[in-house]
Amino acid sequence: MKVPFLDLSIQHQALREQALAALASTYDGTRFCLGKDVETFEENFSKTLGYTRTLGLNSGTSPLHLAAVIAGWGPGDEVIVPAFTFISSAWGVSYVGATPKFVDIDAKTFNLDPAAVEAAITPKTKGIVIVHLFGQPAPMDALLAIAKKHNLFVVEDCAQAVEAKYKGTPVGILGDVGTFSFYPTKNLGGCGEGGALVSKNDAHFDQAKLLRVHGMGRRYYHDQVGFNFRMDGFQGALLNVKLPHLATWTARRQAIAAKYIAGIKLADVILPATVDYGASVYHQFTIRHPRRDALREHLTKHEIGTDLIYPVPLHRQTCYAGLGYAEGSIPVAEKAAATCVSLPIFPELTDAQVDHVIASVNSF
Ligand SMILES: *Cc1c(COP(=O)(O)O)cnc(C)c1O
C-alpha cells in the first residue's frame, strides 16, 4: 500500500467545483491585488480563529519581515530565534540588519527552551521570534515572562500552527505580532503564495497595513519606506473556500496523530510530546530515532513517503556561517536534526494507510 508523504490533489479535487467558481468570480471581477475576496478572507480568518484583525499578505515570510520593521530592530541588535525551525523564522531579523541569536530547543517539544533563552540574553537582546513548531504551541507563559523582564518585542511565527491554542487563546496574539503562512503545504494552504499578520496592538497592525502597500496612507503619498506585500485576490478567494473546512482537517490530523501515538511501539523511538497547555495541530508528525536513515529506507521499501524536516539547524546553515557557530554549539537542535524523520500526516490519509505506517515503523 502506497502512502505518499503529502498529496494535495485529494483535497483540491474534492473542492474543485467550488474553488474554480470562486476563482472565476475573482477573474471576472478583476479583483487581482487585495480587493473584496482578500477583505472577506481577512474578516473570516479573524472570526474563525479569534483575532480582532487580520492582514492578508503575499507570503508567510513577509509578516516576519514586517514584524522586524515594526519592532524597530536594526544593526547591533540581537534577536533570539530557535535553532531548529524553518529558515524564514530568522529572515526578518536578518533583513533589517539585526543579528539572529540562535538558541536551543527543548528536547521533548522541539520548541524554544526557556532556560536556554534566559541564558542567551545580553544587553543587546531586543526581541524574540517564538515558533510554534510542527503545530505545537510553545511554552508561552515562561517565554513571555522572560520577554517582559527584559523588555523584548515578541513575534510568534504561527506558520505551522494555524488553529493551535495556548491555554485556550489562539496562538498569534499572545505576543506583539503573530505571523501565518498559507503556502500550499501548510495546514491551511492556498493555490500559491500567501500569508497573514495578526496583532492585538492597533498601532502595530496599522503600521503593518501601511507598510504592506508601499508605506502609502493616501494614494501616492508615502509616509514610510514600504513594501509590496499584498495578498493576491485568487488566494483570498481560494482561502475563503477552504477556511470552513479547517476545523475538520485539524481534527483529522489530531486523530491520525493519536493513532500513531497509540500504535507505534518501536524501541528507541521518540514520539512527539503532548503538553498540558495546548494541543498540537500536527503540521508535522516528527519522530526521532538513532538510526533515522535506516528507518527511512525501511519505510521507503514499504512505499511510505517521509521527509527530513529539518536536516540542518539554522546556526549550521551556510548563509549564517559568518556568525561562527561551531558544530556542537547548540546540541539539542543538532541532535534533533540528525535523528528526526517526519511521517505522513495530512487529513485525507485513510485509516488503512495510517495502520500501514504504524505496522511498518513497528517492523523496523
Ligand atoms: C512556511 C514557514 C514560514 C514561511 O512561509 P512562506 O509562506 O513559505 O514564506 C515561516 N516560518 C515557518 C516556521 C514556516 O514553516
UniProtKB/TrEMBL annotation:
GO terms for molecular function: pyridoxal phosphate binding; transaminase activity. SUPFAM superfamilies: PLP-dependent transferases. It holds the Pfam family DegT_DnrJ_EryC1. The keyword Transferase applies. The modification N6-(pyridoxal phosphate)lysine is found at K186. Keywords: Aminotransferase, Pyridoxal phosphate, Transferase. The active site is at K186. GO terms for biological process: polysaccharide biosynthetic process. PANTHER family: 3-OXO-GLUCOSE-6-PHOSPHATE:GLUTAMATE AMINOTRANSFERASE, TRANSAMINASE. Belongs to the DegT/DnrJ/EryC1 family. This is DegT/DnrJ/EryC1/StrS family aminotransferase. It comes from Rariglobus hedericola.
